[in-house]
């Protein structure tokens, strides 16, 4: 936790803030070994960041006094990530990693090789998803939550939604065996499409290419979704 994320209503007019959730209190005590007088980085969800002094810490709450928050969060990656819905634990880790890397738009998509049962997972509840996004923001020192959209239909997404996204962005489908290698150092905004653990079926790749995406690969090694996404984003940007 490299940043303490506060909601605007957590901070009083004179700059005092209190947090009460057990996860962060434990982290402050056990990882930061925090003590009153220590300075930590804080940020307001969707807003500015700065330093705050821990004024008190006990089992119930931590209180801070915030200096004026003037620092802007780091720039976002200009990418809309379209991810075939991974199994719940992989989803949790992937959401955390891509949020830490600066992705702000995420679509979770159904494809043929996504198990239908994944869509019933309690991990897809908005509150659960938000928890993983917050972990990513705390890790990277960012305050801007990504927007996550669930799309349970592949064809409606590709036919009705993707063309709009591609009107202002370059579309890239990561698929082992494509002719071209993943480009490096993109200068334009992109839509990055990543498949499920079993990969895309041929028909899906054809539909994505027909919609205007370019196919590309990351070399002969088949990577897990969370590794592939991290490698793709760092290579693209
Ligand atoms: N068995 C599947 C691979 C699934 S890996 C297949 O052969 O297609 C899960 C997803 O990660 C893939 O759909 C792809 O989007 C991405 N990925 C993993 N390794 C990759 C590589 N070497 N090149 C391009 N994409 C890759």
Automatic annotation (TrEMBL):
Pfam families: Methyltrans_RNA (PF04452). Its EC number is 2.1.1.193. InterPro entries: Alpha/beta_knot_MTases, RsmE, RsmE_MTase_dom, tRNA_m1G_MTases_N. The keyword rRNA processing applies. It catalyses: uridine(1498) in 16S rRNA + S-adenosyl-L-methionine = N(3)-methyluridine(1498) in 16S rRNA + S-adenosyl-L-homocysteine + H(+). It is an enzyme of class 2 (transferase). Transmembrane segments: none annotated. It is found in: Cytoplasm. Residues 76-236 form the Ribosomal RNA small subunit methyltransferase E methyltransferase domain. Keywords: Cytoplasm, Methyltransferase, rRNA processing, S-adenosyl-L-methionine, Transferase. Gene3D superfamilies: 3.40.1280.10. Specifically methylates the N3 position of the uracil ring of uridine 1498 (m3U1498) in 16S rRNA. Acts on the fully assembled 30S ribosomal subunit. PANTHER family: 16S RRNA (URACIL(1498)-N(3))-METHYLTRANSFERASE, RIBOSOMAL RNA SMALL SUBUNIT METHYLTRANSFERASE E. Belongs to the RNA methyltransferase RsmE family. This is Ribosomal RNA small subunit methyltransferase E. It comes from Halomonas cibimaris.
């Amino acid at each position: 936790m490299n940043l303490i994320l506060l909601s605007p209503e957590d901070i009083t007019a004179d700059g005092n803030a209190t947090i009460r959730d057990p996860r962060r209190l434990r982290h402050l005590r056990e990882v930061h070994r925090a003590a009153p007088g220590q300075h930590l980085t804080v940020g307001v969800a969707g807003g500015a960041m700065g330093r705050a002094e821990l004024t008190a810490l006990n089992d119930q709450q931590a209180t801070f006094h915030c200096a004026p928050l003037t620092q802007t969060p780091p720039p976002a990656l200009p990418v809309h990530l379209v991810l075939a819905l991974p199994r719940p634990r992989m989803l949790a880790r992937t959401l955390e990693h891509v949020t830490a890397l600066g992705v702000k738009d995420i679509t979770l998509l159904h494809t043929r090789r996504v198990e239908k049962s994944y869509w019933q997972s309690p991990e897809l509840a908005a509150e659960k998803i938000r928890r993983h996004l917050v972990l990513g923001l705390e890790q990277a020192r960012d305050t801007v939550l990504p927007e996550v959209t669930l799309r349970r239909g592949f064809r409606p997404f590709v036919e009705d939604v993707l063309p709009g996204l591609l009107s202002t962005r370059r579309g890239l489908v990561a698929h082992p065996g494509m002719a071209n290698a993943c480009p490096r150092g993109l200068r334009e905004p992109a839509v990055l499409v990543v498949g499920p653990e079993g990969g895309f079926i041929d028909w899906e790749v054809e539909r994505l290419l027909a919609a205007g995406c370019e196919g590309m690969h990351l070399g002969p090694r088949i990577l897990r979704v969370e590794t592939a996404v991290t490698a793709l984003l760092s290579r693209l940007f």
